[in-house]
Write a structure and sequence with these properties.
Elements (H helix, E strand, L loop, with lengths): L9 E3 L11 E5 L5 E5 L1 H4 L4 H6 L12 E3 L4 H13 L17 H18 L3 H16 L7 H10 L5 H13 L3 H6 L6 H16 L19 H5 L3 H11 L4
Parallel strand pairs: 1-3, 2-4
Antiparallel strand pairs: 2-3
Helix pairs in contact: 3-4, 4-5, 4-6, 5-7, 7-9
């Protein structure tokens, strides 16, 4: 797996069974860059964006470098690790040297950015896996995020995303709900504070709103409308480009 550094590094992120596939060079990051060499046609099969790139209509030259400047190498590394091993491994990341006061906030920051990457490359399965990882932190009874994490979430992830919903529910139940509206109106994303206020109001009238153990499926996308609409490769590339701000 890749380790970000000041200079470009070359990494083979291929699965053992795919050694005969042609490797695509992907240059990730801007200030800190890393190059990944992966069998694009068979490695990122859950990503509508990468699948579209490999279609006959959008076939890229074999020697052309694919650039993803808006993605951090360490986050893309997490994504490659999930593609290869089918689980999210954060153990190899140096979370103690990231500027966060504790490892929980640092871990949450990585997961938020990983979810944003999954949104950018149109990978529903990866986003659901990230949600599972966050939900496991919630089920453990601990604090899953800080105000800084929430700000990052609303900067990078759509406010109607399943991950944002999970944060709203967790903060509503564990942070005394309406007190957040009173105490954090000035230092939290306004949309987040409003969502919590609305959630608390609904809870007063609807007793079936979830509380207690997390039902992961409630925060999964599964066969979402977006995924169904992106079966057309041209649409997939256009939507991905919009998410990357290049359309």
């Amino acid at each position: 797996m890749a380790t970000p550094g000041n200079e470009e590094s070359s990494v083979d992120a291929e699965k053992p069974a795919l050694g005969r596939d042609k490797l695509q060079i992907i240059l990730v990051g801007t200030e800190v860059q890393a190059s990944f060499r992966v069998p694009l046609e068979t490695f990122f099969t859950t990503s509508k964006y990468f699948t579209a790139l490999c279609s006959d209509r959008w076939k890229r030259p074999a020697d052309e470098v694919l650039r993803l400047p808006d993605i951090e190498p360490r986050i893309f590394n997490v994504y490659c690790g999930w593609q290869e091993h089918e689980h999210i491994d954060l153990a190899y990341l140096n979370l103690g040297n990231t500027g966060f006061p504790d490892a929980t906030e640092a871990r949450c920051d990585v997961l938020i950015r990983a979810y944003a990457l999954g949104d950018m490359v149109l990978d529903v399965n990866f986003r659901d896996t990230v949600v599972d990882r966050v939900a496991s932190m919630v089920s453990g009874g601990g604090r899953i995020s800080s105000a800084a994490n929430v700000t990052t979430l609303y900067d990078l992830v759509p406010r109607r995303s399943k991950l944002a919903l999970l944060f709203v529910v967790d903060w509503s139940h564990r942070r005394y709900g309406m007190r957040i509206y009173r105490d954090h109106l000035s230092d939290m994303p306004q949309d987040f504070v409003v969502e919590i206020a609305m959630y608390c109001i609904r809870r007063q009238h609807l007793h079936h709103l979830p509380r207690g153990p997390i039902d992961n499926c409630r925060y999964h996308e599964h066969e979402s409308v977006e995924a169904a609409a992106l079966l057309d490769t041209s649409t997939a590339l256009e939507v991905a480009a919009q998410k990357r701000g290049i359309a």
